């Protein structure tokens, strides 16, 4: 018996969609109209496509599906951060966060259901990685968080960070396709410079970003500039040593001329001494970069705690005295487990 499974219409390129429309005895220009509804207007039903005939909308309903992401529930932090549980069409849940600040409105989006990297300090790392998100599932998170920003704070999104659940570079094709749709003139038309992809550090994929001419910002979750310490908290470092990452980053900078941001959580009595700052400063000499020192957000799975404030300040001052652009990032949404490293689905 022949399968009648519907085609995920947003998995198709515009030329592929044209082919399907022609096969359905429709003029090819209809494809562009539908594509506009899907990506510029973010339609999640065929009924919304009001410039198509009722018959065509019915045919589309029979042949295709739009696997729309929905908000399962939201929590608002006492600092106005909003954490969302997004329900995917197959019932899986991922989390995404709206971070409102005076000068920017940022969406933090997920790229995988769970994560396979098992970083010891991150709640998502204790979850099973179930699957990669599709490009349209990532895109939908952005659309829904943008809607939330406008409804709650009367301001559209200004920035997107791929820092939610999962490792973006292990879902390379879908992450890049989502960015293409978010930045395209016939998509959401956002600037590449407003998008940051954060990786735990996969050397060969950083080189691939360089080869593919990535225009967005790259952030590396470093958290230790000593292999022994980094191995302890980030098992991925065993196959992607600091030397391998330095090599990949030099290649990336040579090809793209883009500086990189290093994210560094300052843990109490682990990586908060001035000798750790000296190691980091040495690593920063490889390419132009800036450093974000991040407060640790405790999770129930791990015993790590945040470094003392004076230790963080001393650490930052050491880096600044070495001529390194350094910022201290304060936590947002900690009271609702929406802060960096806290995203995990509580069943």
Care to describe what's here?
The protein is an alpha/beta fold. The protein folds into 2 domains: 7-65, DNA polymerase, domain 1 (Orthogonal Bundle), CATH 1.10.150; 70-336, Alpha-Beta Barrel (TIM Barrel), CATH 3.20.20. Helices cover 34% and strands 18% of the residues. The chain has 10 helices and 14 strands. It has helices at 14-23, 29-39, 54-63, 135-153, 172-183, 203-211, 227-233, 242-256, 274-284, 309-321, and strands at 7-8, 64-65, 70-76, 82-87, 93-100, 105-108, 112-113, 131-132, 159-162, 195-199, 217-221, 260-265, 289-294, 325-329. α10 links the parallel β13 (289-294) and β14. The chain is elongated. 42% of the residues are buried.
């Amino acid at each position: 018996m022949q399968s009648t499974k519907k085609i995920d219409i947003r998995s198709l390129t515009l030329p592929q969609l044209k082919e399907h429309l022609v096969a359905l005895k429709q003029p090819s220009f209809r494809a562009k109209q539908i594509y506009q509804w899907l990506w510029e207007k973010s339609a999640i039903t065929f009924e919304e496509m009001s410039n198509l005939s009722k018959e065509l909308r019915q045919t589309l309903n029979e042949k295709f599906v739009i696997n729309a992401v929905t908000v399962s529930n939201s929590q608002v932090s006492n600092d106005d951060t909003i954490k969302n549980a997004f329900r995917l069409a197959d019932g899986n849940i991922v989390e995404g966060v709206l971070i409102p600040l005076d000068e920017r409105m940022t969406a933090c989006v997920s790229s995988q259901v769970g994560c396979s990297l098992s970083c010891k300090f991150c709640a998502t790392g204790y979850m099973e990685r179930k699957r990669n998100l599709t490009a349209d599932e990532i895109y939908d998170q952005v659309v829904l968080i943008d809607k939330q920003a406008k409804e709650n704070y009367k301001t559209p999104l200004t920035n997107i960070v791929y820092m939610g659940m999962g490792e973006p570079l292990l879902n390379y094709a879908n992450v890049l396709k989502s960015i293409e749709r978010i930045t395209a003139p016939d998509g959401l038309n956002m600037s590449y410079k407003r998008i940051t992809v954060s990786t735990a550090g996969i050397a060969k994929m950083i080189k691939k970003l360089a080869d593919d001419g990535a225009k967005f910002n790259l952030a590396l979750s470093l958290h230790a500039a000593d292999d022994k310490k980094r191995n302890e908290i980030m098992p991925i470092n065993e196959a992607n040593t600091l030397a391998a990452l330095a090599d990949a980053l030099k290649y990336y900078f040579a090809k793209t001329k883009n500086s990189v941001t290093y994210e560094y959580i300052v843990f109490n009595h682990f990586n908060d001494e001035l000798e750790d700052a000296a190691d980091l400063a040495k690593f920063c000499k490889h390419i132009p970069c800036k450093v974000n020192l991040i407060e640790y957000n405790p999770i129930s799975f791990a015993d790590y705690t945040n470094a003392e404030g004076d230790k963080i300040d001393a650490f930052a001052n050491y880096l600044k005295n070495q001529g390194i652009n350094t910022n201290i990032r304060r936590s947002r949404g900690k009271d609702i487990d929406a802060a960096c490293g806290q995203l995990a689905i509580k069943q």
